Q: What sequence folds into this?
């Protein structure tokens, strides 16, 4: 029924568009929220096992140095996997672009917020700058790593699914995670290394390898959660039909 036909049949009611009954809008909203929140959390440096020292050759294992977004950012890849597995690459690519746009908008708003003149009674400007300050090089690193990593993650997962159909979900999850996380970590480290004080090749490779292995390990550990999330959405998504 068109808008005009609805208005003719229901002249006493206002006209509104229909909301999709699928899970896609909800997952995209969660996906975007995770990106925004994890990027703010990432402004805090975190060290696990700070009192321990463990190295394998030139590679430092302990302490584990990461940022405050480590516990939340992997959920972006989980949600990306759900989108890719259930809705395909085009729909996932749209969600990735929306998340990318939201991150740019947030950065622009934070920059404008910091530039606005402070009231005489406001004494938290320095604290605000420390949390939401926009550092161009780190912002570029985060945006570039996210965009390439998520697109590759989705592309690999969908490509493997074209061959395996509904079988071997574990292979799609692990394969896409390895490719996406490595690209994300490599691009971020390559751009951000100088900005955070890394000046030698040894330190760079340590930062890259430990970061990649850590994030990949987290993805593997939460795979049972990803399995359950994908199964739930497939079962309750009205438009998902398993090919025979």
A:
């Amino acid at each position: 029924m068109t808008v005009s036909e609805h208005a003719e049949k229901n002249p006493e009611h206002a006209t509104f568009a229909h909301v999709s009954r699928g899970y896609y809008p909800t997952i995209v909203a969660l996906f975007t929220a995770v990106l925004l929140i994890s990027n703010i959390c990432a402004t805090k440096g975190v060290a696990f096992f700070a009192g321990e020292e463990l190295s394998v050759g030139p590679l430092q294992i302990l302490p584990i140095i990461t940022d405050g977004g480590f516990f939340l950012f992997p959920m972006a890849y989980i949600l990306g996997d759900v989108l890719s597995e259930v809705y395909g690459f085009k729909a996932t690519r749209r969600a990735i672009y929306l998340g990318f746009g939201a991150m740019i908008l947030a950065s622009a708003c934070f920059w404008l917020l910091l530039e606005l003149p402070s009231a005489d009674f406001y004494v938290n400007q320095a604290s605000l700058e420390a949390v939401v300050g926009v550092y161009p090089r780190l912002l570029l690193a985060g945006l570039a790593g996210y965009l390439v990593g998520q697109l590759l993650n989705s592309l690999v997962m969908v490509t493997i699914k074209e061959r395996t159909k509904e079988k071997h979900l574990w292979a799609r999850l692990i394969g896409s995670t390895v490719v996406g996380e490595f690209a994300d970590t490599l691009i971020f480290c390559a751009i951000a290394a100088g900005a955070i004080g890394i000046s030698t090749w040894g330190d760079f490779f340590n930062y890259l390898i430990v970061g990649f292995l850590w994030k990949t390990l987290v993805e593997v550990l939460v795979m049972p959660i990803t399995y359950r999330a994908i199964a739930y959405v497939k079962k309750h998504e009205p438009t998902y039909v398993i090919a025979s």
Notes: The mean pLDDT is 83.
